[in-house]
Write a structure and sequence with these properties.
This protein has 199 residues and is an alpha+beta fold. It has helices spanning 6-15, 39-45, 100-117, 139-144, 184-196; strands at 52-56, 59-69, 72-81, 84-92, 122-127, 148-155, 159-168, 171-180.
Length: 199
């Protein structure tokens, strides 16, 4: 489970310092859940059973579901510390022959989040290698080899949200991570404790 969700740890580390501005619109923080809910309350909010659950990294418990979000195959997970929900993650799992399709998915999810939360406070396009920079038809390839990454951030009064598209070794990953703003210090402390246990 921990290897599968390395992408979560990377996104979460960056999100702990994110800033943006938006408003909660439906009373929930993620799907039909709110921060601080117990695992039992979260499970009661879902209509299907989880496909996996157990401790993972800095989290005492991670509960993983499989479903369809915005017509995309998705794994989504709930993360708990001290029996309370502190963060969540959408891991989009569509697979394409044409790497540019991942860019289309990114723009689709970004548009949905913008409709709900307003314009992102941060909207970054990062080139680490300029090989494909002048060739938009190969931007998908640039992402898959780690030359290009996209990131957009939003913030509600209770939640930091980050959408990312990045890749490495011809594998592309896209996800959205949601973090309880009040639990950021707790998450960081738990992360450090988890790291220290290896020494």
């Amino acid at each position: 489970m921990q290897e599968r969700y390395t992408f979560i740890a990377i996104a979460l580390f960056g999100l702990l310092t994110a800033a943006a501005a938006a408003q909660d619109q439906d009373g929930y923080d993620f799907r039909k859940t709110k921060w601080g809910m117990t695992p039992a309350q979260v499970k009661a909010s879902e209509s299907t059973s989880p496909i996996e659950e157990g401790p993972s990294g800095q989290f005492d418990l991670m509960i993983i579901y499989s479903g369809n979000v915005a017509n995309l195959q998705t794994l989504y997970s709930y993360h708990f510390i001290n029996n309370k929900l502190v963060s969540t993650f959408y891991n989009f799992r569509e697979s394409y022959v044409n790497d540019n399709m991942y860019l289309e998915d990114y723009l689709k999810i970004k548009e949905i989040l913008t409709r709900k939360y307003g314009p992102p406070s941060k909207d970054n396009t990062v080139w680490s290698n300029d090989l494909y920079k002048g060739d938009p038809q190969n931007y998908g390839t640039a992402v898959s080899v780690g030359h290009l990454a996209f990131q957009s951030d939003w913030q509600t009064p209770r939640t930091d949200i980050r959408l990312t598209l990045k890749g490495e070794n011809f594998k592309t990953g896209m996800g959205v991570i949601y973090v309880d703003r009040k639990s950021k210090a707790l998450i960081e402390s738990s992360k450090q404790k988890s790291e220290e246990e290896n020494f």
